[in-house]
Design brief:
Elements lengths: L1 H25 L9 H17 L1 E6 L11 E4 L4 H10 L3 E6 L8 H8 L2 E3 L4 H16 L3 E4 L17 H9 L3 E7 L1 H4 L10 E7 L13 H20 L17
Parallel strand pairs: 1-7, 2-5, 2-6, 3-4, 3-5
Antiparallel strand pairs: 6-7
Helix pairs in contact: 1-2, 1-4, 2-3, 5-6
Length: 253
C-alpha cells in the first residue's frame, strides 16, 4: 500500500502547492532562500519522503557554509534522489528534461519555482537553458544537475555530460559534488514499488570554477567525477571504472 499512498500524497501536495506558487508568481512575490517558492519545494519534497517512510541523513553540511549560489553535481539512480536533494539543498532549482514541462499544473508550477527545462535534442536551446540557469546561480540560487543523464541501475558512476560544467563555468560559482546513496533501495529504476528506508546525502568539498573558461570544461568535469568516484569507493566500496568523459562528445545534455 505504500506506493499508492505516496502517489496520493504527491498529487494532493501538487494540487495544494501548485496554485500557491502560480498565484505568488502572478503577484510577483520575490524569489529567495525564505520565499514561498523555496518553502513550497521543500515542503513538497519532504511530504513525499514522509509518505514513503524515507529518512534522509545529511553528511558534509559544513561544506555549504558561506555558499551563496552553487552548482550541485549529483549522481542519479532513483526518483527519490530528487526528493532527497530538494529537501535539503538550500534555495535550489533543478535542470529537468523538457518533457516534464507538459505535465498539467506540475509543469507550470515547476517553472514558477525556478525549474529550468532542458531540450536535450536541441543543442542551441540547451545552451540557452544553461545561460538562464547560470544567471540564476549568480543571483544566489543553487542549481542541481545530474550529469549522468538518465537514472542508473546501480551506484557506480557513469560518464558525465559536459553541459553542466559549461553552466558552472558560466556562473563562476563553486561546484558541490554530491552523492546520494540508499535511494535505489527505496525505488529502483524500472519499478514503481516503493520501500521505506534511509537515504544518505553527502556534500563533498566544493570545487571552485573561478578562472576557468570554456576550454577547461573537460578538466573540471574530470576533477568532479574523480572526487565523487573516490568518495563512493571509500564510503561504500563501489568502484567506478568507466571513463569520466561522456561518449556523446560535444553534445550538450
Amino acid at each position: 500500500m505504500r506506493t499508492p499512498f505516496v502517489a496520493l500524497v504527491a498529487v494532493v501536495m501538487t494540487l495544494i502547492l501548485g496554485p500557491v506558487v502560480v498565484i505568488a508568481r502572478l503577484f510577483r512575490a520575490p524569489q529567495g532562500p525564505a520565499s514561498i517558492y523555496s518553502n513550497a519545494v521543500r515542503l513538497w519534497a519532504r511530504s513525499i519522503d514522509w509518505a514513503a517512510g524515507v529518512r534522509v541523513r545529511v553528511h558534509g553540511a559544513e561544506h555549504l557554509e558561506g555558499i551563496n549560489g552553487a552548482v550541485f553535481i549529483s549522481n542519479h539512480v532513483s526518483w527519490f534522489d530528487i526528493f532527497a536533494l530538494a529537501s535539503h539543498v538550500p534555495w535550489c532549482s533543478f535542470i529537468a528534461k523538457s518533457e516534464l514541462r507538459r505535465i498539467p499544473l506540475f509543469g507550470f508550477a515547476a517553472e514558477c519555482v525556478g525549474i529550468v527545462f532542458l531540450d536535450r535534442d536541441n543543442r542551441k536551446r540547451a545552451f540557452e537553458s544553461y545561460k538562464v540557469a547560470a544567471t540564476e546561480v549568480r543571483r544566489g540560487r543553487s542549481i542541481v544537475v545530474c550529469p549522468e543523464g538518465t537514472r542508473g541501475i546501480d551506484y557506480h558512476l557513469r560518464p558525465f555530460k559536459k553541459g553542466p560544467f559549461v553552466l558552472a563555468i558560466a556562473s563562476q560559482t563553486p561546484i558541490i559534488p554530491t552523492m546520494v546513496y540508499g535511494s535505489r533501495e527505496v525505488m529502483r529504476k524500472g519499478s514503481f514499488v516503493i520501500h521505506s528506508g534511509t537515504i544518505d546525502l553527502h556534500f563533498l568539498p566544493p570545487i571552485e570554477t573561478k578562472g576557468y573558461d570554456y576550454e577547461h570544461r573537460g578538466a573540471l568535469m574530470t576533477a568532479v567525477w574523480t572526487s565523487m568516484a573516490d568518495a563512493m569507493q571509500s564510503l561504500y566500496g563501489v568502484s567506478s571504472s568507466e571513463p569520466s568523459i561522456a561518449a556523446s562528445g560535444e553534445r550538450v545534455e
